[in-house]
Amino acid sequence: MKKILLLGSDGNLGDQLVNEFSNFPDFKVIGYTKKDLNLTEFDLIIPKISKIKPDIIINTAAYNNVDKCEEFEDEFKLAHKINGEALRYLGKAAIKNDSILVHYSTDYVFGGDVCQEEGCGAECLLNFKEKGGFREDDERCPINKYGLTKMSGEIELQRLANKKLKYYIIRTSKLFGPKGKSQDSKENFFDLMLKIANERKEIAVVSEELSCFTYTPDLAKRTREILEEKKDFGFYHVRNNDPAIWYDAARELFRLKKIGVRVKPVLSDKFPRPAKRPKYSVLANTKLPELRSWKEALKEYIKINL
User: CA 155 → CA 58, 89, 266, distances in Å?
Assistant: First the structure.
């Protein structure tokens, strides 16, 4: 039996991972919340994990307030601690206990419409689109501070690879699914749209920012499969099929729910936010079987939860 230490077990993704792995007798899940292990307390990370001696560490704990991270320096420092520096200690804990470390990252480590390579222009975006999105080994180019913190965490783990760290970094995007037990768990896009639809007959939705939606139960299942199949260590992109913009996703939701609200497409500058979002951040999946379309996953989510 493999012992899994799951960090952030009461979050949106953590909750689904608990459900997924608990259905298989080959795994024993020990769930840790922020109260059990706060990733800003660096000196406690290695000793607390070493008490458990897990075969696998799965880290879903993260700072994910993109706009606060951009706007306030103290929030950026906090995000860098949790998303970046803490990974150094998680990696060292994994090495000490001979554990496999699974960590989740984001499409926001890429920029899509802005690449920081010198001399690179619009042809760069065209190149990414032609090959189906950003591949696992593409150069990272975040365009906001949140993306910088997540990139920092990836680099921390890569630096430990030559010290025999066994890790999977799973990049994903636009998560949706059942809400976790934690009070800090955020509403997903579809839940928010339904809430707004109860108050308005017309909703303005951004018609830019092409990326991929990811259903958390599907992500949890694919995580288990990666571990069971003993895939090569390194980077993986896991997201549901068929890239979509927010506008198309809202229209599909209201079509499935048979709600007669009017959805108005608007550009992203209609909703000014402190952090810039990439207009294109599709994750190309070159290593794994494709997941089902996000539309199929949304049907299931609506049937079970909405």
Answer: 17, 13, 36
Going by the DSSP 8-state scheme, the letter that residue 211 receives in this structure is B
Q: Quick one: CA dihedral 232, 234, 238, 241, positive or negative? A: negative
**pLDDT tens, 191-230?**
999 999 999 999 999 999 999 999 999 999 999 999 999 9
Neighbouring C-beta atoms of residue 27, cutoff 10 Å: 18
- Residue 4 pairs in a beta bridge with 29, 56
Alpha-carbon distance of 257 to 195, in angstroms, equals: 13
- Among residues 7, 14, 11, 152, which one has the least CA distance to residue 77? 152
Q: Under 8 Å CB-to-CB from 93, ≥6 apart: which residues?
A: 45, 46, 49, 50, 57, 99
Q: Tokens 């890569």 belong to which residue? A: 158
Here the CATH number for the domain that contains residue 226 is: 3.40.50.720
Q: pLDDT digits over 83-131, tens only?
A: 999 999 999 999 999 999 999 999 999 985 545 444 454 555 666 677 7
- Tens of pLDDT, residue by residue over 277-303, are 998 999 999 999 999 999 999 999 999
Using alpha carbons only, give the angle 280, 286, 288 rounded to the nearest 5 degrees: 120
Please answer whether residues 236 and 287 qualify as being in contact, where contact means their C-beta atoms are separated by less than 8 angstroms.
yes
DSSP annotation string for 102-119: EEEEEGGG--SS---STT
Q: Which domain holds residue 246?
A: 2-305
Tally of domains in the chain: 1
